[in-house]
Amino acid sequence: MQAPSSEDLRSTPSRSSSSSVRVGHSSPLHSHRQSFTESLRGHPPSPRATRQPSLSQAQLQELLNNPPTVGTADPTFSGRDWQTIGVGIEDATNLLINSGAHVLLVRHQKDERAAHATYDYRDLTQYLLFATGQLQPDEEHLPIFTSLAKKAQAGHPIPLRDAKSLGNKEPFMTLPATANLTHAIEVFGGGVHRIVIVEEGTDNVVGILSQLRLVKFLWENGRNFPIIDSLYSSSVKELGIGSQQTISVNGDKALKEALKLMNNEGLTSLPVVDNQSNVIGNISNVDVKLLTKSSSAPLLDNTCIHFISVILSTRGMNDGKDSFPVFHINPYSTLAHTVAKLVATKAHR
Q1: Is 231 helix (H, G, I), strand (E, B) or coil?
Q2: What number of H helices and E strands is found in the chain?
């Protein structure tokens, strides 16, 4: 997808002047240093060559403690930490983030084994967009939205089931544990990201099957299935797989536009490109956990490239090591190479 034309990527507001690239005549004592845009024109030897310099811990903390004053938050929620809007949403979000899980089961009663819905980062993204005024409900959901706004103004908790009733949501799909993988693949082919597995003849949940877990199983056991194993030596181009019509966002665009695009298109992640359509980063629904404080609201109006540098800096502080912004293959990569990289990086695309 051709990226929209715009001015060159702006430097992030939290970056100090000493770290910016100066334009002018090079000193004879120093060799020319490529600009960020120049370095993306060729194929870099490593994804590290295309990433923005990470923010230091002090710079990131300064950004969170003293954010810019710009913003377009809904007056209904002005001046409040969004997590205080409702106990249901707060508890679910804290559990989702602190557990490290990608999805939570939603049950009517704490001690029951059946589930009637799931809560994941896509739900959180959609709720944040509604809470900050970036999304407006359609006519069908307007009464529910109005009711939730009144509860929020009165300081009443908002149950998770009410928040999930807003906007679009992924179908809640179940399969019995005795179903075969062919059936599961057919369900995944309809755009579903995960399937809840239940005991035969009951609604009791025994596990969750995700697309990545299925890919990992087929990779680890491919030699046991000759039909699948025979495909691994073929290239992605030969097999004709992979999306030809990609959806992306320019790095100069505001983060809120990227999140709305992900929500409207039903995507879990979105590539970020420069003006020459070079991929310079990736934003996923999981990254919205960095937006769950009211002090982080200005990030919604900042650029996508700035948010990527915040993502990478936070990962560096939490994991104690640098992070690659993008993993990629080319059309001539074999299916074996592609699947191995997906499994090793735990990437979805």
Answers
A1: coil
A2: 13, 8
Q: What is the DSSP letter of 320?
A: S
**pLDDT truncated to tens, each residue of the chain (349 aa)?**
444 444 444 444 444 444 333 434 444 444 455 544 444 444 444 444 444 544 555 655 555 555 544 444 445 444 444 444 333 777 888 888 888 888 888 888 878 899 988 888 888 888 888 877 787 777 777 787 787 777 766 767 777 777 777 766 778 899 999 999 999 999 998 888 899 999 999 999 999 999 889 999 989 888 888 888 899 999 999 988 876 678 999 999 999 999 999 988 888 889 999 999 888 888 988 999 998 887 888 899 999 999 998 988 887 666 555 555 567 888 899 999 998 888 888 777 7
* Coil vs helix vs strand at 200: coil
Tokens of 256: 């809120």
Closest CA to 72 of 136, 168, 162, 152: 136
Q: What pTM did the predictor assign?
A: 0.65
Query: What is the DSSP secondary structure assignment for residue 244, as one 8-state letter?
Result: S
> CA angle, 173 as apex, 171 and 175 as ends, to 5°?
170
Q: Enumerate residues 6+ apart whose C-beta is below 8 A from 244.
A: none
Q: Which amino acid is at 200?
A: E
